[in-house]
Specification:
The protein has 425 residues and is of the alpha+beta class. It folds into two domains: 348 residues, Porin; 75 residues. 27% of the residues lie in helices and 44% in strands. The chain is built from five helices and 18 strands. The protein has a 14-stranded antiparallel beta barrel with strand order 1-2-3-6-7-8-9-12-13-14-15-16-17-18. Strands 4-5 form a two-stranded antiparallel ribbon. A hairpin with a 5-residue loop joins strand 17 and strand 18. The longest helix is centred in the last third of the chain and has 72 residues.
Length: 425
């Protein structure tokens, strides 16, 4: 109950920060705002304080790179189709080489081709003789992150991303269309353990130069993301077989943007396990303060994982604009060094409740047998000591008898000698 109250309080503070800002959308490179992965969309695009996978560390918060363990690595690939036949592809990866040496990389491509383009000619619309119109946007990023827990008194990850973005629009007509490019930066921090089971995050995104369209420059949409995430419930141990809930995590984000009105995202994720082998994640979320209709901000998601390999699916509603679905494939693995030991330990299945009880009983019985054995050994030692004492006493008694016999014989001889002497006198 205390955790839930605390998360609601944090949500109110973030909400208050968001509604205090408004903006007008005049920015370029808005494709940089497109959410790349199914997992975060399934959670209502509330992920800045989670950021624990390839997309999360490269797109949402590079501070998440600070929590990679040495030898950890992962990749993810996303495909999505938007309304108006807009395709979206996203590839991301990360690599942990040490507490102060973690890296991420990503590539995004959004594309659209309009079949049967038209032009305005002779006061009427006619088919274009120049082929199909098309558009293409790409972005490439490199990220670096480190953990500052050895420098600061808190468990904090910090990261920085540098990205190159370019877009070409309407390239199928007589006019070559517009194309532009820019360089931008993200900086973020992620703090864990400041309050038990709660993470806090702060990220500044898309900071940098204006986009250059052949000499015409437009600003891009910079953003400030504030978020918190909390483990509402965690299982102490797994139950045997069947379906078991491992963890329930809730999150809330505020997105403050220079090019549009702010909004609030909330999300939840239930992490479950079937027979301690197959992981299933169930997700839901809602985007507030977006004027697209009551159900427009409602998102759902589902994930399936097995031995590092994961598949995530998400459905997102945009009201009258339609809905989008997204599929992300991910793979996490580890290699070399101290991480190998941890991975070998993970190969052993976690104990179930029954196994834990059985093991405890066996340990208690083993301890009892050990104590009984020790008692038997002590008893035998005492018996042996008693036997030795008896033998020693017997030996001493026999020696005393011999000594007494010898003394008695000597006395008899002495007396006989004395008697003979007296008789002689």
């Amino acid at each position: 109950m205390k955790k839930t109250t605390l998360l609601i309080t944090i949500s109110i503070l973030i909400f208050s920060s968001a509604v205090s800002l408004t903006a007008v959308d005049t920015a370029a490179m808005r494709f940089l705002d497109v959410i790349p992965d199914a997992r975060s969309i399934g959670r209502g695009e509330s992920f800045v304080a989670v950021a624990d996978d390839a997309a999360g560390m490269n797109f949402w918060n590079p501070g998440g790179l600070g929590f990679i363990k040495p030898g950890d690595a992962g990749v993810s690939l996303t495909h999505a189709m938007y309304f108006a036949d807009i395709g979206y592809e996203y590839l991301a990866g990360y690599l942990g080489l040490g507490k102060m040496l973690n890296f991420g990389i990503s590539f995004m491509w959004m594309h659209q081709e309009i079949i049967g383009s038209t032009i305005w000619k002779d006061n009427m619309i006619k088919d274009s003789p120049y082929g199909n119109d098309s558009s293409s946007q790409i972005a490439f990023s490199l990220s670096y992150g480190l953990n500052l827990s050895g420098i600061l008194p808190v468990n904090m990850g910090a990261g920085l991303s540098a990205k190159f973005a370019s877009e070409s629009l309407n390239t199928g007509g007589p006019d070559p269309g517009e194309s532009g490019s820019t360089v931008a930066f993200d900086a973020g921090v992620l703090v864990k353990g400041l309050i038990k089971d709660i993470s806090f995050a702060l990220v500044a995104k898309d900071l940098g130069m204006q986009a250059d369209y052949g000499g015409v420059k437009n600003s891009i949409s910079s953003k400030l993301l504030i978020g918190a995430a909390m483990d509402v419930w965690k299982a102490p141990i797994r139950s045997s077989g069947g379906f078991a809930l491992k963890k329930l995590n809730a999150s809330v984000d505020a997105h403050l943007m220079t090019a549009s009105d702010p909004f609030i995202n909330i999300g939840i994720e239930a992490d479950t396990m079937i027979k301690n082998i197959l992981g299933i994640q169930i997700r839901a979320g809602y985007k507030l303060l977006q004027d697209l209709g009551a159900f427009a901000g409602l998102n759902f998601g589902l994930g399936i994982g097995y031995k590092g390999l994961g598949v995530d699916y998400a459905f997102g509603s945009y009201g009258d604009l339609g809905a989008t679905t997204r599929i992300t494939l991910g793979y996490k693995f580890s290699f070399g060094g101290e991480r190998e030991i941890e991975e070998k330990a993970k190969e052993t299945p976690e104990e179930t409740a029954e196994e834990t009880v059985k093991k405890s009983i066996e340990e208690a019985m083993e301890e009892k047998k050990q104590k009984e054995l020790e008692e038997e050994v002590k008893t035998e030692e005492k018996t042996k000591e008693s036997t030795e004492e008896v033998k020693t006493n017997d030996a001493m008694t026999e020696e005393e008898v011999k000594t007494n016999d010898a003394m008695t014989e000597e006395e008899v001889k002495t007396n006989d000698a004395m008697i003979k002497e007296e008789a002689a006198e």
